[in-house]
């Protein structure tokens, strides 16, 4: 999968497996990108696999989530 597909997969896993809204999942992945969490993936697309996306989703959730509850 491409780098972009990998990021999409991580977002999907955050949504499906960790109960985050789509918006919050994207926000977590964007924060991880800003911290260069995925820089190795961009340099070496061979590590962009389904298995790695699962590991990355867990790591991103642990470090950047869960998203704080919003006031409505």
Describe the structure.
The chain is an all-alpha fold and 72 residues long. The chain has one domain. Helix content is 68%, strand content 0%. The protein is built from 4 helices and no strands. Helix 1 (3-18) packs across helix 2 and helix 1 (3-18) crosses helix 4 (50-64). 26% of the residues are buried.
What is this entry, summarized?
With 72 residues, the protein is mostly helical.
Question: Main β-sheet, in a few words?
Answer: none
Radius of gyration: 12 Å
Number of strands: 0
Instruction: Name the quaternary structure.
Output: single chain
Number of domains: 1
**How big a fraction of the residues is strand?**
under 5%
Order of helices and strands: HHHH
What number is the mean pLDDT?
91
Q: Helix segment count?
A: 4
Helix content: 55-70%
- Which blocks of ≥5 consecutive residues have pLDDT under 50? none
Separation, N- and C-terminal Cα atoms? 38 Å
Give the structural class.
mainly alpha
């Amino acid at each position: 999968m491409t780098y972009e597909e990998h990021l999409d997969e991580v977002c999907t896993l955050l949504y499906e497996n960790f109960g985050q809204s789509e918006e919050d999942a994207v926000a977590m992945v964007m924060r991880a990108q800003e911290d260069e969490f995925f820089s190795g993936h961009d340099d070496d697309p061979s590590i962009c696999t389904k298995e790695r996306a699962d590991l990355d989703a867990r790591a991103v959730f642990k470090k950047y989530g869960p998203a704080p509850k919003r006031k409505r």
